[in-house]
Amino acid sequence: MRLDKYLCETGFGTRSQVKALLKKGLVSVNGEPEKRPERKVDEHSDIISCGGKAAVYSEFIYLMLYKPAGVLTARSDRREWTVFDLILAELRRDLSPVGRLDKDTEGLLLLTDDGPLAHHLLSPRHHVEKVYFAQVRGELREADILSFQEGLDIGDERKTLPAKLEIQKSGAESEALVTLHEGRYHQVKRMFQAVGCEVLYLKRLSMGSLALDESLAPGEWRRLREEEIALLKKEEGSRDESGDTN
Ligand code: URA
């Protein structure tokens, strides 16, 4: 789509008003100043701003961040880097991370200002599936698959909900995929601890239908594609229709 059309559609005025803004040098595409109204932009991947304000195409913003290890899932911190330090300043304002990853955990982190969707994904009632890859110190055995399936005592009031453990490598150090339907504090680490293993590396691969884009490098992010948003919304809608009131 042409840049001037894009700016009109995202609320920056009429074609002629938008042309004036472009002429004044107030518009940037992916951080670079742009004055040409006919410049073609991709409304799903290009980051466009006008007068320092993000020109956002949809009602809500949805970003997928490949959270690197070593940064906090927090808005700001005096001493440490946070996930917001990695996001383009114009887009930061109303976004919230959907759930937390520990400082040393990496992988998929969704950030959005779509409150109802975030609520759906995080609500314990909805049991949205999250998949993690873990490297652990200690041997994983067939019996552990059953323990994960039956629910583990990790020191909370209730045992964990049934979880799936898929062992990929077993030895002094082991590797596995874990699928959870809840999100308690340090849950994956505490589940492995409960079967005598220590997590050395943890990466979230997916949340509901949304999978980490492996073409992103740690620390990189992108806007969600329309079909990714549609799938998440569809999941949200189907829960609502099933009579779940939360
Ligand atoms: N479980 C953990 O132990 N840590 C995370 O960051 C996410 C899930």
Architecture blueprint of SSEs:
Blueprint (H helix, E strand, L loop, with lengths): L2 H7 L5 H9 L3 E3 L2 E2 L14 E3 L2 E2 L7 E6 L21 H4 L3 E2 L8 E7 L2 H8 L7 E8 L4 H9 L13 E6 L3 E8 L6 H8 L3 E10 L2 E2 L9 E3 L2 H16 L5
Parallel strand pairs: 7-11
Antiparallel strand pairs: 1-2, 1-3, 3-4, 5-7, 5-13, 6-7, 8-10, 8-11, 9-10, 11-12
Bound molecules: uracil (URA).
The site of uracil has 8 residues, from helix 6.
Structure characterization notes:
Helix content is 25%, strand content 25%. The chain has helices at residues 3-9, 15-23, 89-92, 115-122, 142-150, 187-194, 226-241, and strands at 27-29, 32-33, 48-50, 53-54, 62-67, 96-97, 106-112, 130-137, 164-169, 173-180, 198-207, 210-211, 221-223. Strands 5, 6, 7, 8, 9, 10, 11, 12 and 13 form a 9-stranded mixed beta sheet that branches. A 4-stranded antiparallel beta sheet has the order 2-1-3-4, with no helix packed on it. A hairpin with an 8-residue loop joins strand 6 (96-97) and strand 7. The radius of gyration is 21 Å and the shape is elongated. Mean pLDDT is 91; it is low at 242-246. Bound molecules: uracil. Uracil binds at residues 101-102, 105, 186-189, 202.
Strand element count? 13
Spatial separation of the terminal alpha carbons: 39 Å
Mean pLDDT: 91
Reported for the largest beta sheet, the result is: 9 strands, mixed
Radius of gyration: 21 Å
Uncertain regions: pLDDT < 50 for 5+ in a row?
242-246
Strand content: 25-35%
What gross morphology would you assign?
Answer: elongated
Bound small molecules, which ones?
A: uracil
SSE run: HHEEEEEHEEHEHEEHEEEH
Number of helices: 7
Proportion in helices: 10-25%
Secondary structure class reads: alpha+beta
